[in-house]
Amino acid sequence: MARLAAPSAASGHKIGPVVGHPSRASESSETSPRRVTDAAQADTGRVAARPRRASRAARRGARRRQSGRRLFAFDRELGERFVAGADEAGRGSLAGPLVAAAVLFDLERLTLGDRRALARLNDSKQQTETAREALYPLVLRAAAKTAIVSRCVRGIDGRGLHVTNLDALRAALRRVAAPGAVCLVDGFAVPPFEHEQRAVVDGDCRSAAIAAASVLAKVTRDRYMRRIAARHPQWDFATNVGYSTPEHRSAIVEHGISPMHRMSFQSIAYTQLRLASP
Question: What is the mean pLDDT for each group of 10 consecutive residues in the chain (278 residues)?
């Protein structure tokens, strides 16, 4: 049975017996010194916990604000003036194009203002839509060169997703790479071409050039999917931008597929419709 809270002695009210506990009937309005001490310690603990929580939140916010500095430090450690990075968006989606982007930074000409503007630069998947949209023009302004390459749904189905992805990444890098540049790709190397390249595991959260490319690719693709959503309202591309969500899969089961859906992608929703891959 729950205990009744005792009013303070200063209130002038006497404490009656605690219901269900006859042994405590003799307790007076005088509060035990030990209880006062315990209560004070508990309050102190709660007060102390709040600053710790606030401190952790502040540290997380500070890391986000300074992520760009860490990413640019990684690129500078490569020892080259020109660093190009490439990344893609849409590789794992059920519908829509694959978009690859490449960004070239001239680290000797990058201004302090550019670095400050890109202080929040990070992997686009860790950014909100609003944050990505804000970073998009800042990347375009700071970069020495940028390139965006799109591969359509039928091309993906015809050549295969992996081959199409590598081809798009290489095409984007070729458009931006300068003599002496080192080209970075998120996760794996593309087929050899005329510039030095390095595969960087988790590159979009380690390299500024790759992270900048991921922002351009993601924003470009999301904008496109939202533009075409009105032509294909049954699949709600404005919300899912072509990726597999429970609602998207349910829409496929109910309405079938649109011309924007990839037939070569292995999806449970496609299996339910008994659609054969080409």
Answer: 42 38 42 51 52 52 65 95 96 95 96 91 84 96 97 94 94 95 92 91 93 96 97 96 93 92 73 51
- Say how far apart CA 164 and CA 173 lie, in whole Å: 14
Q: CB atoms < 10 A from the CB of 240, how many?
A: 21
Give the span between the Cα atoms of 38 and 31, in whole angstroms: 12
Nearest C-alpha neighbor of 104 from the set 149, 143, 147, 148: 143
Q: Which of 63, 58, 184, 185 is nearest to 119 (CA)?
A: 63
Residue 114 belongs to domain with CATH number = 3.30.420.10
The boundaries of the domain holding residue 211 are: 67-228
Q: Which helix (H) or strand (E) holds 184?
A: strand 182-186
Mutual orientation of helices 67-76 and 33-65 as an angle, nearest 10°?
A: 50
Q: Is 15 contained in some domain?
A: no
Residue 159 to residue 146: CA distance in whole angstroms: 26
Is 58 domain-assigned?
Answer: no
Q: What is the rounded distance in angstroms from the CA atom of residue 99 to the CA atom of residue 151? A: 6
